Fold:
Amino acid sequence: MEYTTITTRPFADQRPGTSGLRKKVRIFQTPHYLENFVQSIFDTQDVLEGGTLVLGGDGRYYNRQAIQIIVRMAAANGVAKVMVGQGGLLSTPAASCVIRKYRADGGIILSASHNPGGPDADFGIKFNTANGGPAPEAVTEAIFARTREITGYLTLAAKDIDLDTLGTTSLGGTRVEVIDPVADYAALMEDLFDFERIRQLFGSGHFRMRFDAMHAITGPYARRILEDRLGAAPGTVINGIPLEDFGGGHPDPNLVHAHEVVALTTGPEAVDFAAASDGDGDRNMILGRDFFVTPSDSLAVMAANADLVKGYAGGIKGVARSMPTSQAVDRVATRLGLDCYETPTGWKFFGNLLDAGRITLCGEESFGTGSDHIREKDGLWAVLFWLNLLAVLQESVADIVQAHWRQFGRNFYTRYDYEGIETEAANGLMAHLQSRLAALPGSTLDGYSVEYADNFAYTDPVDGSVSENQGIRIGFTDGSRIVYRLSGTGTSGATLRVYLEAFESDAAKQDRATAEVMQPLVAIATGLAEIESRTGRGEPTVIT
Ligand code: VG1
Ligand code: CO
Structure:
């Protein structure tokens, strides 16, 4: 087999964001663009030479072509074994599971997660290290540095491999093993959750659920686990066949984009439980009958009830949440005497805490929850956690969450996203906020007293690495908060995220509508940041 070096020139824009490198498909199709990034991974991750690489993606447009390119490059770069999901598919959590189970040296996941797919939409690539988790910043920065000076990449002339047949073939000196993308993951779920009890719940005749795979990667996983193994009625999984363009939608499990499944939780025929997951299967939305569980509350409820769930019956070690995530889980941690960590946005920041055994559960407000079972957030895991809880408690989702509020207080929560605003306007807005920070503590905004105002910086307690400029936080004396950040996953312009939280300990006031409770904070947040005059937007693009 003939290895060749192809001459190339650096692209200036290959710095990974919150979760990998995301660009329009057309950019990834630019000659050498994908190859440069992949070679930069091989050039900086020496363990891959002679090692094992896990490879798969969420099935979006360009997934198959990219897999073939990467397999050839892996062979030319001396990777001993490539484990690739059948059809080129692996959900993000399944990739993490496979990396850990087979002690691979790393993984490449092709996904732009919740971003739309198709020839005019988005593509992405992320590298996971041997712990199964997203590469930490030191690694992504090293890869980025390499992309700035790359002059060539290695590949070989070979036919496409057959991605659809399970089994092992070879390419040059590399063994390529096409694996069942679901089997290892399903086995792990069966270890963690009480499948027998969940099966009884589905068999009881009084419990119906829907899971919306949003035409993305979780369809095959959800069908095999929920319908085949747990006995949920056929048709429980909707939109269960992965499509290259996700049916034209945003595979983003929130109240706006997953409205189809939300609608199934209301009215006389409402199901008891519903959920959805995103493009690459790491996010989850949890719904009860007429009831939406905020991701921040979901994490808090999980932490408070973990001992009821098979895999966590021995207790949990600690918890973590990303900075903008509500402080609901902090209250549980205080009550249970657990350590609670506040990290920057992005799952990569949980990796060290999980590896060091400091935490068991962690989550983000952006519909991400997970545990130390892998090193990624995990959509179906969260759904199974809730199913296990429902099977044990035999109560409705709403009853469980409302009882939680009565016990711990309620953290009302909402997020405003202003998508596709001009980058300069977004940067100007953040600079303006930064300039106001010093004067805010001790002042009063529309009757709310500012307790602290800062730009969040994080020192990793395990390796001491420092990450600065992670979002502006304004905390008030009554426990409410406003947080501003710019997204690191978009592919055009800038997205401003405004996160709002208000605490209510009085049970009599916990059933108020979120929009009404948040109104005063919305007014403060939009006014303080001069959102309308700086971005031209009177209203956000999405409210979740
Ligand atoms: C968003 C979320 C963040 C999440 C990231 C990746 O990032 O806010 O919490 O970890 O997406 O999720 P940003 O920088 O756009 O706010 V996924 O499911 O898109 O891999
Ligand atoms: Co995702």
